[in-house]
Amino acid sequence: MRLPLSFFLFRDAPLKTTRRSPARRLSAMPAARRYGLTTLVLGSLILPAASPADARVVRRIHRTVVQPIRILTFGGAITATQQKVLFTPYAQIIKHQLAPSSWDGTVESLRKQETDSPHRWAAVMMETSSLQVSCSLGLLARDPADPSPNGCGQSSASIDFAMAWDRSRFDTPPDWSDFWDVARHPGRRSLRRDPRTTLEIALLADGVTPDALYRVLNTQDGVERAFRKLDQLRPYIVWWSTPEEAARILKSGGALMGSVPTGEILSAAQADRGRFGLYWPQRLQVNYAWGVPKTSAEENTALALTAWLEHPTQKQAFANAWPSLPSLAEINAGSPDSRRLLPPIAVNDTFWSTHLSILSERFEHWAAGP
């Protein structure tokens, strides 16, 4: 839990914002009081037994806000689910509008946002590895008591990415090696324009087993192997940058098959849901977290919102609402693409927070090439 939420208000204190740095406020505040408001705020927002007085304290955090509370997230089915189980309930509690916008979640995009639009965004959803890198660069508000890579936020959502394909074009469900077989299955393939998930998929297609994935990728030979595999597919790739875009490419017929969040397909209208199969055995699980941009670190609204979004209750609410597996009807029917429900392959945040900068630079150079 991010501590700065408790810097600002206490049950009987008037609402005001100080210009002292978070670190100075933290050091000047007894530990028991630092934790007190976090419990109070979360209790008033989550627990049904919270008193009306507690709820008034939380609303007082937002009373002076005139503009909507702006949030950066990923659009598509992800935002639709968040709107239903996170943003709308919170807006009803504080009696104030939340305004989500879509973005690509990259470190460079956050850097640009902080330069061009400081103080604009109360919370940003990012992959956990991006959040850790942004934290180390000073782009996000950090808990001064936590020097670890997790000092700017904890993972609060996991989303599976799998291969989807047009059922009308295949007699049997394809796997990642078929994804590369353009002779037997001609057509475009859609992949993420980012080394994360894309290098893993290339190695899976080249025969690397899931348990050896990061041992291989953690070597220079393994990186070269992944890029050589991508070279084979380069002329057929359609790139996407956001989960929403990944789904749109497939639904519009822009690619024969592609990587996509499973929930974007599972939550689609029935016509699209029946049109696409999903390859379950080697899907990838990506972790996401909420951060507070550094320029918004003094804002009560940003700290209160992010503390609420990070709470286990909200994490579970999103997990329950986000469709990540086939329905029981599909499983019971024994459809070929839902028969082998192996656990997902977890994308390694520690690996990527360490290697993201170097591999992103190489990947962009490769993707921009002929």
Structural features, described:
Helices cover 46% and strands 16% of the residues. It is an alpha/beta fold and 370 residues long. Strands 1, 2, 3, 4, 5, 6, 7, 8 and 9 form a 9-stranded mixed β-sheet that branches. Strand 1, helix 4 (76-94) and strand 2 form a beta-alpha-beta unit. Mean pLDDT is 83; it is low at 3-51.
What gap, in angstroms, lies between the N and C termini? 46 Å
State the total count of DSSP E strands. 9
The percent range for strand residues is: 15-25%
Q: DSSP helix count? A: 17
Please describe the biggest sheet, giving its number of strands, its sense, and whether it closes into a barrel. 9 strands, mixed
Radius of gyration: 22 Å
Overall geometry: globular
Q: What share of residues is helical?
A: 40-55%
**Low-confidence runs:** 3-51
Q: Can you write the helix and strand succession as a string?
A: HHHEHEHEHEHEHHHEHEHHEHHHEH
Structural category: alpha/beta
Calculate the mean pLDDT score and round it. 83
Task: Pick out its properties.
370 residues, alpha/beta, 9-stranded mixed β-sheet, 17 helices, disordered N terminus
Can you describe this structure in just a few lines?
By secondary structure, the chain is of the alpha/beta class. It has 17 helices and 9 strands.
Write the topology of this structure.
Elements: H1 22-27, H2 31-46, H3 52-62, E1 69-73, H4 76-94, E2 98-102, H5 107-116, E3 123-127, H6 128-136, E4 155-166, H7 176-179, E5 189-192, H8 195-205, H9 213-217, H10 220-233, E6 237-240, H11 243-251, E7 257-261, H12 262-266, H13 270-275, E8 276-291, H14 300-310, H15 312-321, H16 328-333, E9 345-346, H17 349-367
Parallel strand pairs: 1-2, 1-3, 5-6, 5-7, 8-9
Antiparallel strand pairs: 3-8, 4-7, 4-8
